[in-house]
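lol ok so funny story. i was supposed to be doing the assay writeup but got distracted and ended up predicting the structure for this chain instead. priorities right. anyway since i did it might as well share w the group, maybe its usefull for someone
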Amino acid sequence: MNINEGAPLKIIESKANGLTFDPFGKFLASQSSEEKSVKIWRVQNFKNITEETSISSYFKQSMGMSINRRLSWSADGSFISATGGRIKGEYIVPLIQRSTWDLMACLSGHSSSINISRINQRLYKAEGNELNCYSIVAIVSQDSAISIWKPQL
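and the output, tada:
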């Protein structure tokens, strides 16, 4: 199939507010403020996409509808940062581990809902350790507050 001959697939039932591919092209993540969830899709080829898992526990308390839910995948593919999370009244960015799809960490501290998360696509080398690298995560909330994180994972 020529790339210019795209064939739309109807795999998402509700409005998707954000999409991101993992860096290896094996998974696609979608986020919906209607469903209050992040869905991970396994991409076998571009005509065969199946739901791997649905994650909703961090989004059940999220604030209603949002135009954007910009989630992001780490450069090494080890985790995804989602937006719009809320637990016990705190606005959070859940960092979700690849394969197990479990929570690795939560980034919190903003006073309003977090819409955008972007992981720098460059891996940084930890000082003194040749094999240990880390990612930098930037998040933005609805009140335009920006924070930059170096998650301790």
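The chain has a mean pLDDT of 83. The first strand starts at residue 18 and ends at 21.
back to the writeup now i swear
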